[in-house]
Amino acid sequence: MVKLSVIVPFYNVQSYAPDTLASLRANARGDFEFLLVDDCSTDGTPVILERAEREVPGAVLIRHERNGGLATARNTGLDAARGAYITFLDGDDWLAPGYYEKLLAAAEDLGVDFVRTDHVQCTARERKVFRVPVGRRNEVLRPRDAILPADRSTSVDYPMAWAGIYRRELLDRGLLHFTDGLRTAEDRPWIWRLHRGAGSFAAVGLLGIFYRRGVASSLTQIGDVRQLDFIKAFDQVLEETANDPESERLLPKAVRTYCAVISHHLGSIERFEPSVARKLRSMSADALRRMPQDVLKDALDGMDGERSSRLRRLRRRPAGAPAVSASAVAGAA
């Protein structure tokens, strides 16, 4: 029986894939499988992965015939996964030796649906530890409670899928798949759905995953139209949260986070191509008008002056979509 499935999408990361694969080898165990999903790479990545399938214990190579993006590649891995537990790794990141064995042990000891972990962010030679924004460690917690409060960073603001481990039952219940085709922010609807749908989780202070930031080919570094998929992602978060039985309690957090991300992108709008920057302003203004206006007002009133002013100005742009009330959003299917 396979105990752990590790899903690792790769796309044009020939410079980093050898480090990733070497770290998988240092985490291999007889009951672990490593699902290497080549998302139709056009550089030397496929050759590296072919060699890894022969040399890394537990490695299984899966090829896409066309590029589908990170969300779709992860879904391909999920469909092939056989493990009792599942986790993720990106093709340009790496692990400490023996990390997965410790992570699996933590999940089994705590007996929860999923575990979230800290990580190390690596930018050139700089290393910085990022912690799960959950105060209570190594305790069984209710995921819904970790969504709030609305005005502070919480567990849903730490959405990286690779920073954790998940019981297979979550996959069987439809809680681990991503929205096909989302090119960015694909983990935002995913982390919200996980926290609304799972029954228990825990945060642990286990360090061992190294996230490589600043990779030139990473979508987060490229200011093209694909970046605007964050609007689709957060529209999905709002729609699904509005249909939740606790929508009145949870919507303020969803709206506030959506506003914060819009403000973040507007604050660095110079990195976008001019046509994309115009589209960002227009789509963001429409998004604000789609939000439940009473909840939006409270969110803007509670934000700092700079972000609030930026969003209020945007909100005054010519309307491209009608405003709706919280009750109307909650009733939308």
What does this structure look like?
This protein is of the alpha/beta class. The chain has 12 helices and 11 strands. The strands form 2 sheets. Strands 3-2-1-4-9-6-10 form a 7-stranded mixed β-sheet, with helices on both faces. Strand 2 (about 30-40), helix 2 and strand 3 (about 60-65) form a beta-alpha-beta unit. Helix 8 packs antiparallel against helix 9 (about 275-290). The longest helix has 21 residues, at about 245-265. About 40% of the residues are buried. The model is unreliable at about 320-333 (pLDDT under 50).
Detail the topology: elements first, then pairings.
Blueprint: E1 4-10, H1 17-25, E2 32-38, H2 45-55, E3 59-63, H3 70-80, E4 85-88, E5 94-95, H4 99-110, E6 114-117, E7 119-123, E8 126-130, E9 164-167, H5 168-172, H6 187-197, E10 201-204, E11 209-212, H7 229-242, H8 247-267, H9 274-290, H10 293-301, H11 305-315, H12 326-331
Parallel strand pairs: 1-2, 1-4, 2-3, 6-10, 7-11
Antiparallel strand pairs: 4-9, 5-11, 6-9, 7-8
Helix pairs in contact: 1-2, 6-7, 7-8, 8-9, 8-10, 8-11
